[in-house]
Design brief:
By secondary structure, the protein is of the alpha+beta class. It has 4 helices and 6 strands.
Length: 183
């Protein structure tokens, strides 16, 4: 019973890490990265599809992302989706591919993006603490069924798991901040 509670908490905390990682991936850093646009929704023949299902991506140099649509007739819809996104990048279409040139970030924009990723990291930490709180209440519900020593040991393991997961979020944040500050 105790192991089930700890395993469930571990799974939920891991999903929080994956969510934060996914949020960080779409923050533009001034470097071309396919993750920024691959999940962008494109209206294609009446269906809303992620861009990664409609095209291949290449990064010929650090500031250029080239989108190779599988179907050339999708180019106008892909361009429309890129224009309506909040990326702040103008696509260049040559009829066969779409090029996205990533301009260098200004210092002001870097600081704004750092504030955004810090907020996202804090949301991840809050999510992890909420998982801990839920697992703690599940452990408290087992008070009559398990020995006090087992419950204290499980609570200690839960706290160690929480601390470890929060450290992972902090490390992800540190790396993303360094990436944003890199000129």
């Amino acid at each position: 019973m105790i192991e089930e509670v700890l395993d469930e908490a571990n799974l939920l905390m891991e999903s929080s890490i994956e969510f934060v990682t996914g949020q960080f991936a779409v923050v533009r850093t001034g470097r071309a990265n396919p993750q920024i646009v691959q999940n962008l929704r494109v209206n294609y023949y009446g269906a809303s599809l992620p861009l990664q299902q409609l095209a291949n991506f290449t990064v010929p140099d650090p500031r250029l992302l080239v989108i190779h649509p599988y179907d050339k007739s999708a180019i106008p819809e892909i361009e429309k989706a890129l224009h309506s996104s909040d990326l702040g990048i103008n696509p260049a279409n040559d009829g066969a591919v779409i090029r996205l040139a990533f301009p260098p970030l200004t210092e002001e924009r870097r600081m704004e993006l750092i504030r955004i990723v810090r907020r996202q990291a804090e949301d991840g930490r809050v999510s992890i603490r909420n998982v801990r709180r839920g697992a703690k209440s599940d452990l408290d519900a087992l008070k009559g069924l398990c020995s006090d020593d087992d419950l204290h040991r499980a609570e200690r393991q839960l706290q160690e798991l929480t601390d470890q997961t929060v450290k992972q979020v902090d490390e992800l944040l540190r790396r993303k901040e360094a990436e944003l500050l890199e000129v």
